[in-house]
């Protein structure tokens, strides 16, 4: 199976909101929710995320000795084939189509990612079964996955964290940018934004490295650090929660500079190719997340579709490293992008 076949198969079953576009750039889905779009009137942030990466180019330099290219990453005691993670998605049967439920989707995604040398972040939702299915899939993969809890009220977070602990996950996350989702804004008891003190309590209770997803400013990054996070994800929730928000590529370097190596920095939002991955690493990220195209991969080919997409990304990253003079990830530097 090649990637074109994955896309062709996905278009037959992925539902009315996602078009399984050749390039997932946010233009066809606009502001459609449920689905892969955005809650805003325009849905321009998802488009801006994609386009921002295209404003950066790589600097080719092949005057280096030939060497094997090492794309591997170590994170929190685990070694991964590529610095790429599948991003969290929940309630797939609502957002896409009923070909998959959260149980079947996570079974495919988590296991296929683990079998192909990376790991998946899993999603959360109003239906408690979303987190139950996600954490069970991670448990069956010997903890090789990262459950992502939404910023619920304190009591609900504690309940979800019990599922996280039972999964044996090697790390966990909270997507604080989900505070802007409509169902969380009206949630009772109140959910959404978290103070540093509230987040610190959650981090301490986790018992594993904690990742805060949804950081878009240097100030926010330093608050996550103060709360005890081991890593942050520069993210605006895929452009789904706030129109006119900056693109993740445009704030990444400032945030990397602010944390100054004190925590791991990951980034998502509009990253679609291995060349984009290379750009993110050159700008200081340790790794990237990609979400919506992995949904397309599952719907278009199941485990084989996931493998196809991972190998596509990995091959593009390896080729870019080869052509820009980087033998391993630590060789990738800021002067390799323009």
TrEMBL record:
Q: Which CDD domains match?
A: alpha_hydroxyacid_oxid_FMN (cd02809)
Active-site annotation: 237
- Say yes or no: keyword Glycoprotein present: no
Superkingdom: Bacteria
Please give the catalytic activity noted in the UniProt record.
Answer: (S)-lactate + O2 = pyruvate + H2O2
Tell me one GO molecular function of this protein.
Answer: FMN binding
Known cofactor(s): FMN
Q: Which UniProt keywords apply?
A: Flavoprotein, FMN, Isomerase, Oxidoreductase
The UniProt similarity line reads: Belongs to the FMN-dependent alpha-hydroxy acid dehydrogenase family.
Q: What is this protein called?
A: L-lactate oxidase
Organism the protein comes from? Eubacterium pyruvativorans
